[in-house]
Design brief:
The complex is a heterodimer of chains A (147) and B (301).
Chain A (H helix, E strand, L loop, with lengths): L1 H34 L4 E11 L10 E8 L4 E8 L7 E7 L2 E5 L1 E2 L4 E2 L3 E4 L4 E9 L5 E10 L2
Chain B lengths: L1 H18 L26 H9 L4 H10 L21 H20 L3 H17 L8 H10 L3 H21 L3 H25 L3 H21 L6 H17 L3 E5 L4 E5 L2 E5 L3 E5 L2 H20 L1
Antiparallel strand pairs in B: 1-4, 2-3
Helix pairs in contact in B: 3-4, 3-8, 4-5, 4-7, 4-8, 5-6, 6-7, 7-8, 8-9, 8-11, 9-10, 10-11
The chains are: A alpha+beta (147), B mainly alpha (301).
């Protein structure tokens, strides 16, 4: 009987841990949405958790589709959790073509956040990964910039 | 020892149940008339469907454009919350949740906090009705709306709540309700835009309306897997009347390379590839009329 109760208790702990993790993600989304700036209105978030890249294989990446509208200015920013091994990068793609990356690997410069003046309504993709394929957790934010 | 352990577990369970609003669920909510069962004829993969759903644009953008072109606020554009108690099937509740969500976006953009409370109350009722009330922080939202303290937080929590509701529905095999909610958001957003276009001629607004062809096609892809359900089949039939007009709207593209500039100390990427919408006045008028007809029919239930 005590063994069963212990198992139930462990089950409860798992549920509680899940709630705490969900809460942490929610906090990070809110903080990252605030980081986008006063002139930006939050539209969407992208919560990412990626493992470390295996030797010789491509870096893990999370991909999200989104529709962007002509004549709108959008802001993209990304926040990495403190526990992460790597730093997150957010990239915007139109079909298979890279429009912009928040990190320039050649100069090691960061552009976080960056704005995008959209002139073509259509489906775009946001890619989030970590520098050098390290593991980590991050939140990407898409905001609308008020004119 | 066993008794102590049971008491401890019961206390623990009580703490857990207090962490979310799930405890607020009334028994009646579990008896909602849910005529929508998961369709057996889903033809596109869950992953593909998920991608399409995520790519439907936000109602905030349409409301922001309406404000940016100088349109004065009008309550006449909004769906009334007076009949929210009559919505008692999951179809009606999910669809109306989307409708009021779009209206809430419009009210948020215009900072109309007094009216916002009515819509928050209606949304809260509908969210509880389809058992997603735990994602809608009614108490905080109401406090922010009535105190007029933090408009940014009100907007953030509203949008975030809808995003969370949508994700939860899709992740828990209730994608049909997410699809209905998205449809409600889109049709109401279209109604707002077309009502303004009917009163004010504005090229940017006409173009934005024409561009909705893309979102409408996405909605058909989202709803189609559930068309074996009579209510969704009827909804698609009505939406097809709008689609037939949209099919005549042409969208062309100009190629160009993006440029990077610095504006206000921040990097801005200016896209030079452009989309151009060809929409005649007649087509626009047909879209305005058809949207009004379909929208009014749907909210009448």
């Amino acid at each position: 009987m005590i063994r069963i109760l212990t198992l139930i208790f462990i089950g409860f702990l798992f549920v509680l841990t899940g709630n705490i993790q969900a809460q942490s993600a929610a906090d990070l989304v809110e903080q990252c949405a605030n980081d986008a700036g006063k002139d930006a209105t939050y539209l969407k978030d992208f919560i990412v958790k990626l493992g470390e890249a295996k030797a010789g294989s491509k870096h893990p990446v999370a991909r999200y589709p989104l529709v962007l509208s002509k004549n709108n200015v959008y802001r993209f920013n990304v926040c990495t959790t403190e526990q992460s091994e790597g730093k997150a990068i957010i990239r915007l793609y139109d079909s298979n073509r890279l429009i912009f990356s928040s990190y320039d690997a050649n100069t090691q410069e960061e552009f976080n956040p960056f704005n995008f003046l959209c002139q073509k309504t259509g489906i775009y993709h946001v890619f989030i990964s970590f520098i050098d394929g390290k593991s980590g957790e991050a939140v990407g934010i898409l905001s609308y910039v008020m004119k | 020892m066993i008794r102590k352990s049971i008491l401890f577990l019961l206390s623990f369970a009580l703490i857990l149940s207090c962490q979310s609003r799930k405890g607020k669920l009334a028994d009646a909510e579990l008896d909602i008339l849910d005529s929508l069962e998961l369709a057996a004829d889903i033809q596109i993969s869950e992953e593909a469907l998920d991608e399409i759903v995520q790519s439907v644009s936000s109602p905030i953008e349409m409301a922001a454009l309406i404000k940016e072109i100088g349109t004065p606020f009008s309550l006449d554009y909004l769906a009334t919350t007076d009949y929210v108690d009559r919505y008692n099937t999951s179809f009606q509740m999910a669809y109306s949740l989307g409708v009021f969500g779009a209206d809430l976006g419009y009210l948020n953009i215009y900072n109309k906090n007094t009216q916002i409370v009515d819509y928050l109350t209606a949304i809260n009722k509908l969210a509880d009705g389809i058992r997603v009330g735990q994602f809608f922080d009614f108490v905080t939202l109401k406090r922010l709306a009535t105190s007029r303290e933090n408009i940014d937080s009100l907007m953030y929590i509203s949008v975030n709540s809808f995003n969370n509701i949508d994700s939860y529905l899709r992740e828990n095999n209730r994608g049909h309700l997410s699809a209905l909610m998205m449809t409600g958001v889109w049709i109401e957003g279209m109604f707002l835009a077309t009502q303004v276009a009917n009163e004010t001629s504005n090229p940017a607004l006409s173009e934005r309306i024409g561009e909705q062809k893309l979102n409408l096609n996405n909605l058909f892809l989202i709803l189609n897997p559930y068309k074996s359900q009579q209510q969704i089949a009827d909804l698609l039939t009505q939406m097809n009347e709008i689609k037939e007009v949209f099919d005549q709207v042409e969208i062309t593209y100009e190629m160009g390379e993006p440029e990077t500039v610095e504006k206000d100390g921040m990097v801005m990427i200016v896209q030079n590839e452009k989309s151009n919408v060809q929409i005649t006045d007649e087509q626009l008028q047909q879209i305005i009329n058809k949207t009004e007809e379909v929208r009014n029919k749907l909210i009448a239930f």
